[in-house]
Amino acid sequence: xxxxxxxxxxxxxxxxxxxxxxxxxxxxxxxxxxxxxxxxxxxxxxxxxxxxxxxxxxxxxxxxxxxxxxxxxxxxxxxxxxxxxxxxxxxxxxxxxxxxxxxxxxxxxxx
Length: 111
Prior knowledge:
The protein is mainly β. Helix content is 0%, strand content 44%. The chain contains no helices and ten strands. A four-stranded antiparallel beta sheet has the order 1-2-3-4, with no helix packed on it. Strands 5-6-7-8 form a four-stranded antiparallel beta sheet, with no helix packed on it. Strands 9-10 form a two-stranded antiparallel sheet. The mean pLDDT is 93.
């Protein structure tokens, strides 16, 4: 068991665990990554808007998807943690009420 103070409060969404790393969306538009074994903070990305929740693992197991609060889904590389692409959608602010879900090659966004 470990404790890790956060610079920002978490977004109400469960963290994503991938290859021994936790990914957690925090308020202020941040995505933080922590080592699951040690709790060490290993990476942080800043986005231009709040995030709607924590990311989900893409089917290729090399990328993550995370929804912005309004109109954007970000595709991220997990190693190193960085932006890979973004997709514009028409979801409004606070419209995403459930975690993203991958269904084969598709991504389900419920708003």
